[in-house]
Known about the structure:
The protein is mostly helical. Helices cover 81% and strands 0% of the residues. The protein has one domain (6-152). The protein is built from four helices and no strands. Helix 1 (6-82) packs antiparallel against helix 4.
Amino acid sequence: xxxxxxxxxxxxxxxxxxxxxxxxxxxxxxxxxxxxxxxxxxxxxxxxxxxxxxxxxxxxxxxxxxxxxxxxxxxxxxxxxxxxxxxxxxxxxxxxxxxxxxxxxxxxxxxxxxxxxxxxxxxxxxxxxxxxxxxxxxxxxxxxxxxxxxxxxxxxx
Length: 157
């Protein structure tokens, strides 16, 4: 025999409604946490990629700066050489600048996207070949590599 009192039905309806709301809130909360976690992971990856691009860009910029100093020092060396004033310190400074360039540029080379391509290998050969006797040509080559490096495309955007 069904209950005669409508109060029981109201209590059952309220109880079912409450349980339904609790389940709904719990499910929504779980989905919200998952969504926030995925968003956090995407943001961390984006930040990591941005840092990497900026690091590569800074290595290019430092390499070009060192090459500019190398060009200036090479010019001083050539002037001193023309006046028969070979200064050992000039040679030491040139070597230090070459080492500094190699340390910065090796980071660029390490992850270059097309480093197995013949164009890249040829550019590297020319850079190594001309570093000590024609740093201006090397700076041009490094600038071209920088312009074609897909890792840093749109860094200033």
